[in-house]
Amino acid sequence: MAAFDCVIRGGEVFVSQALVRCDIGIRDGRIVALGEHLDAGDEEIDASGRWVLPGGVDAHCHLDQPMSDGAVMADNFETGTRSAVCGGTTTVIPFACQFKGQSVWAAIEDYHQRASQQSYADYAFHLIVSDPTPTVLQDELPRAIAEGYTSFKIYMTYEDMKLNDRQILETLMVAKSAGAIVMVHAENADCIDWLTELLESAGHTTPEYHAKARPSAVEREATHRAITFSELVDVPILIVHVSGAEAIEQIDWARRRGLNIFAETCPQYVFLTSDHLHDPEGCGHKFICSPPPRDQANQKVVWNGLRTGTFQVFSSDHAPFNLDDPKGKALHGKNASFSKIPNGIPGLETRLPLLFSAGVTQGQLSLARFVNLTSTYPARLYGLFPQKGVIAIGADADFAIWDPHATWTIANADLHHAVDYTPYEGITVTGRVTETVIRGRVVQRDGRLLVEKGSGQFLRCHAPDFDLM
Ligand code: URP
Ligand code: ZN
Ligand code: ZN
């Protein structure tokens, strides 16, 4: 019998925050040895010339999420996670969304059915709390947290999702007492509605007005308000999909006051600008997401935040709607007003290569910062560490094996999601995940899937680790 089920040999492996040349011995899906000249494995993977990094943890993506306006997401758990693993992500944390009037447990059961036997990646769930009734607050949420759903997202905008200030405070209290982390979508709903009405009544309905209806001030105000609630309740929060300088200023200000505020940003805020919404060929709707992409000056500030530690998490916020689909971006017709176009863009497969290339290859980010932002910190914040997010003895054998020198151009035809476009079409990147390994099994090699759907396992999350810095 071989000493190991699998040995990954000859690569440069990211261990203890640096690349070291060593082999990895795997047994029963876990890392059991790290060292040179390990004995043989039943299976051997030659990683020479390549970098073995922890598999990515995408802590913000939407899969098979029913929409109240009737829009239908292009990706379900099969196609979304297929795309994730081909981009080097081994764990995803999508949302189980409570709609108003629904119990949290009904939402959890619904999403388990959607994911069951479908996923290529391992997966956990965040909850979305849209109806914090007394039963939800006193009974359902504490029980869900105890059973491994230790994070939930709340919205300050969107009619069907938003909580008022009092409801936010009450939800934060539950997170504090039961040990969860709350993710906040920070945009001021009334300001957006008011601006939208003004714009639409002046005949401004094309996609570029989406950004004008949701300016930075709207995000800044809500970010500040969320921070204030976090301070009043004395519980950490994480602000999701931070788009630019004004929200960052609030987050940095809060930290200087000693508040425990965490922050996430996404590819759209460093690779897109609001100019993309202004597409003369009428394709601006493919970039509609909220908050909207800003300008180049804001991109620079987001890059600085990625470098210096404002951000702990870099997620895709994959929210997949087809362009030419009456159930997708064209839900209300091709010339519908911006306010009627489903929000969100795809990005599960492109998240890691985009950041690796513009960050690590081009020298804007250290490799350690890249790994922390895309794998280790999300695993820690969302209670999956040290099972996920690290290459260490005892951890799950989840790896993205990179050719750091491969240069390629992103084309939707080559991606593995079920969306009919990528907002990153035509961007050339250097750095490519050639193999993805989950619990010791190679799940994809050069974009070819080697396992069946359903090989991904459900993960229960532990308490968040707020001690990142
Ligand atoms: O536009 C976006 N971001 N859509 C996805 C839903 C959300 O708010 O994250
Ligand atoms: Zn959001
Ligand atoms: Zn989202």
Count of individual helical segments:
12
Name of the CATH superfamily of the domain at 56-373: Metal-dependent hydrolases
- For this structure, the CATH topology of the domain at 56-373 is TIM Barrel
The hetero compounds bound to this protein are: N-(aminocarbonyl)-beta-alanine, zinc ion
Return the CATH class of the domain at 56-373: Alpha Beta
Instruction: Note the beta-strand portion.
Output: 15-25%
**What form results from the Cα inertia axes?**
globular
Mean pLDDT: 98
DSSP strand count: 20
Helix share, percent: 25-40%
Which architecture of the domain at 56-373 would the CATH scheme give at its second level?
Alpha-Beta Barrel
Q: Which tags fit this structure?
A:
469 residues, alpha/beta, TIM Barrel, nine-stranded parallel beta sheet, seven-stranded mixed beta sheet, 12 helices, 20 strands, 30% helix, 22% strand, globular, binds N-(aminocarbonyl)-beta-alanine, binds zinc ion
Report on this structure.
This protein is of the alpha/beta class and 469 residues long. The protein has a domain at 56-373: Metal-dependent hydrolases (TIM Barrel). The chain is 30% helix and 22% strand. The chain contains 12 helices and 20 strands. Strands 8, 9, 10, 11, 12, 13, 14, 15 and 16 form a 9-stranded parallel sheet that branches. A hairpin with a 2-residue loop joins β19 (441-445) and β20. The longest helix has 18 residues, at 216-233. The model has no long low-confidence stretch (mean pLDDT 98). One zinc ion binds next to loops.
